[in-house]
Amino acid sequence: MLHALALNRGSLRLSQLVRPQLRYLQKSSIRQFPKVAGSLKEELLRWVSQGFRKSHIRSFRLAGLGISLCALPGLRRYDCKSVHVTNRRAEHIKRERLNEEEPALALSDLWGLMKPYLGWFILACASAILTALLNVEIPIRLGELINAIAGIIRDQGAGHPIDIAVVQPAATRLISLYFAQAVLTFCYISFLSVMGERMAADLRVKLFDRLLSLDMAFYDAQKTGELSSRLNLDVHEFKSSFKMSVSQGLKTAAQVAGCFISLLRLSPQMTAITMGCIPVVILVGTLCGTLLRSLSRRAQAQQAVASAVADEAFGNIRTVRAFAMEKEESGLYKKEVQKAAVMQEQLGMGIGVFQAGTNLFLNGVILGVLYGGSQLLSTGDMSPGELMSFLVTAQMIQKSLSQLSVVMGTALKGWTAAARVFQFANIVPLIRNDDGVCIPHHAFVPVITFENIGFSYPTRPGHAVFENMNLEIPAGKVVALCGPSGEGKSTIAALLERFYEPTSGRVTVGGKDVKDLNLEWLRSRVIGLISQEPVLFHTSILENIRYGKPGATDEEVREAAKLANADDFVMKFPQGYNTVVGERGAQLSGGQKQRVAIARALLKSPPILILDEATSALDVESEKLVREALERAMGGRTVLVIAHRLSTIQNADIICVVKNGGIAEQGNHRELLRKKGLYYQLVQAQAAND
C-alpha cells in the first residue's frame, strides 16, 4: 500500500508538472525541451529529498535518487543548450573543427622524437621491468616467510622447541627485495621524467620553428588560440601521457608475464583457469579503445572551441567593452566550457565503465582462486604458503589488468595530442626563407616591377584580386597607391614582401624574380615596412627599435629614433629607452608607437620603404610629427606608399589608382586631376566629406 501511495504521489506531481509543459511544447518550438528537462531535473531532486518514516519507502526514494543522478549528465547536456542563440561565432568555429581531417600520428614521427634519448628510454624500460619482476618475486618470498612462520606454529603446538632463526633468511630476502624495488622505482620514474621533459622541449621548439616558417596563407586559415593550444596544452598532454603509459604499460606487461610464470610454478591447474580471463580483457579493451579515442578527440576539439572563444574576447577586449558585451561573451564561453565538460564527463564515464567491469570480472576470478585453492589445500596438493603466494600473485595480475584501462585512456589522450602537434609540425612551407641569392650592396638597384600579376588569396581562391596587373616602381622614386577599399593596395605590398605567391606573372626586385632571392636578406636588409597599426613587443623601447637590426649599438638606435622624431618623447620617460612599453605597446599613444615603428624600420637603412597607411589612424598633432619623420626617411629611397587620405600623397612622383584588378590610372597629382578620371572623382569625394 505504501509503495502504491508513494508511486501515486510521485506520478501525480510529475504529471502536474509535465502536462502544462507538454501543452506549451505543442504550441511552441521543440527547442523549449531544455526548459522541460531542467524542470524535470529540479522536480526529481526535490522529490527524492523528502524523508519518510518507513525504511522500505526510503529505500525506494534512494533508488529514485540513484536513477535521477545517472540521468543528470544527459539533462545537463540539454541545459547547456541556449534557447535563444544570438551569437553564432562558436558554431562557426565548431563547424571548422568538424570539417578538419582527423590527424594521424606516424610511428616514424614518434621514433624521431625518441631517438636522441634512446639511452634514457632503455634505462627506464630496464628499471621498470626489473621493478615488475621484483614485484612478482615478492609474493613468492612472502610465501616462504609464511611457511616458515607456519612451521614455527606447528612446532609450538607439538611442544617442540622454537627456533626463530629459521625465519631470518626468508625475512632478509624479503627486506632486500623491498629496498631493491624502491631504488628501481626511483630510477625508472626519474629516467622517464628526464626523457619526457626533454622530448616535450624538443617538440615545442620544433613546432614553434615550423610555425614561424609557414606561409601567411596558413595563418590566414588558423586562429592564434589554436596554435597556442597545440604548442602548450597538446605537448603537455603528450608528455604526461607518454611518461605514464610507458612506466605503467611496461610494469603491467612485465608483471603479467612474470606472474604467469610464478603461477605455473605454484599450480598449473589453477593457472590455466586464472589466465583464461586475459584474452577477454584484451578483446573488450580493444573495442572500448575505439570508442574512447573518438570521445577523446571530440572533447579536445570542444576544448579548442572554448579556448578560441576566450582568445577572441581577450584579443578584442576594447570592442567588447565598447558595446557592453561582457555578459554575452561570458555566457558564450560558459556554454562552450559546459559542452567541453559534458564531453569530458562522457569520456571519464566510458573509462570508468570499462575499469569497473574489468575489476568486477577479475575480482570474480580471485574468488574462484580462493575456492579452487581451498579444495587443493584440503587434499594436500597446496601448502598454506603456496596458496598465499598464489592469491597475492593473482591479485597482482588483477591489479595490473585493471590498470590497463587507465593506461589505455591516458595513452589514447596522449596519442591524439601528439597527432595534433605533428599535424602542424610536419607541414612543409611552400615559401622557404633561407633559399635563394643575395645581391651585393654595390650592385643592387632598388627598382621594382610587377609583370602580368594574377592573384587570389588561398582562403578565397574563387575571388581574383588581380588579373594581368602591371606596375613599375623606379629606383629612388615615391610611388603612391590609392583607390577604393578592398581593391588590393595592401596586397601589392604583401606580394612585394613575398608573403604570398602570385598565381601568374612575377615580381622582380633589383632585376631578379623575388622567387630567386633569399627572403631573409630581402626582408631584413632591403625592405622596411611601416604599417597602419604598428606592433610592438612587451619589452623596452630600446629592444623594440633594435628589433630592426639585432646587432645595432645603443648609439645607432638613438640616431634612428631621432630621425623618426621619437627621441624627444622617449627621453621624457623616467627610464628613457629602457621604458617597457607593455603588451602590444599599450603604454604608448598611437603616434608614439608609430614613431618607434618608424625608427625600427630606419635602423636597418633599407633601400626600399613600404608605408602602408602609416598616418591614417593618428590625430592631427601626431600625424604632423609622423609625417615629418616619414619625409625625412623617404629621402634617397625607393618608396611605396599606400594611402587612404589622398592629401598625404599629392607630392608623390607617381600616383597609381588601383581598381578592378589592375592599375586604372597612373601619373602625378596634377596630371591625374587634369584627366578628371577616377582619381579626380576620389579627390572630389574626399573633399566633400571633409
Short description:
With 690 residues, this protein is α/β, with parallel strands linked by helices. The chain folds into three domains: 2-81, no CATH class; 99-425, ABC transporter type 1, transmembrane domain (ABC transporter transmembrane region fold, Up-down Bundle), CATH 1.20.1560; 441-689, P-loop containing nucleotide triphosphate hydrolases (Rossmann fold, 3-Layer(aba) Sandwich). Helices cover 66% and strands 8% of the residues.
Main sheet, how many strands, which sense, barrel?
A: 6 strands, mixed
Counting structural domains, the number is 3
What structural category characterises the helix and strand content? alpha/beta
Put simply, the count of helices is 23
Please tell me the CATH architecture of the largest domain by its name: Up-down Bundle
Q: CATH superfamily assignment of the largest domain?
A: ABC transporter type 1, transmembrane domain
Overall 3D form = elongated
Enumerate the strands of the largest sheet in spatial order, edge to edge or round the barrel. 6-7-8-3-9-10
Strand fraction equals 5-15%
Assembly state of the chains shown = single chain
Radius of gyration (Å) = 37 Å
Task: Determine and state the CATH class of the largest domain.
Answer: Mainly Alpha
- Number-wise, the strands total 10
Intertermini distance = 88 Å
Could you say what the CATH topology of the largest domain is called? Answer: ABC transporter transmembrane region fold
Low-confidence stretches: 1-37, 47-86
**Average pLDDT:** 77
Helix content percent band: 55-70%
